[in-house]
Design brief:
This protein has eight helices and six strands, in the order E-H-H-H-H-E-H-E-H-E-H-E-E-H. By secondary structure, the chain is of the alpha/beta class. It folds into two domains: 135 residues, 3-Layer(aba) Sandwich (Rossmann fold), CATH 3.40.50.1000; 44 residues, no CATH class. Helix 7 links the parallel strand 4 and strand 5. Helix 3 packs parallel to helix 5. The longest helix is centred in the first third of the chain and has 21 residues. It is globular.
């Protein structure tokens, strides 16, 4: 089970951090009724897209600058890396926001992949690229996230998927698509056979 080729891939917002981004508020400011912000922005005129990007960047920067970690997040990432598994951060955020998050919390990753690096989740491409860079196989990778796109991305890549759901109340209706469900990040160490 403890293969050195295993790559552990974490989402950022709502997975390693407490949920802070208000997507409904961003949609309201931009003027989008529902759905994915990034995909909607691709269909906008250049002027509207630039305005939308400014709004999204502002919200993301604020969230990264004021983010609070999920309990045990740094300890879990550190323990996984200490064991020898490479750990990647895979986010639809910008590189600037990912760096601000990393600087704020002092978490070390072997690779950070943002939306500036190519196609984003839910495509499986980010997982394939992360594994290719870190020397692992998608089938040996674990993708941990709090959003449907994280699970869709990991499943499409053939990875093991983990839904991190820290919110009280019922699980989302798509939660059954994940291979595992955890309520606290510390549970990852048991799932990986490290605790």
């Amino acid at each position: 089970m403890n293969s050195p080729s295993r790559v552990i891939i974490f989402d950022m917002d709502g997975t390693l951090t407490m949920p802070t981004l208000d997507f409904d508020r961003m949609r309201d400011e931009i003027g989008i009724a529902d759905g994915s912000l990034l995909e909607a922005m691709e269909t906008m005129s250049p002027a509207d897209k630039a305005r939308a990007e400014e709004i999204v960047h502002r919200h993301e920067a604020d969230a990264a600058a004021t983010s609070a970690l999920q309990p045990g997040a740094k300890e879990v990432v550190d323990a996984i890396r200490k064991f020898g598994f490479p750990v990647a951060l895979m986010t639809r955020n910008t590189r600037v926001s990912a760096k601000a998050f990393q600087d704020r919390h002092g978490i070390t990753f072997d690779l950070i992949r943002t939306r500036e690096d190519g196609v984003c989740k839910p495509s499986p491409q980010p997982v394939h690229e992360i594994c290719g860079t870190l020397g692992g196989k998608p089938a040996d990778a674990w993708v941990i996230g709090d959003f449907h796109y994280d699970i869709l991305c990991g499943n499409a890549a053939g990875a093991t998927t983990v839904l991190m759901w820290s919110e009280p109340g019922p699980l989302p209706d798509w939660s059954g698509e994940a291979n595992h469900i955890i309520r606290k990040l510390g549970e990852m160490l048991s799932l990986l056979g490290l605790a």
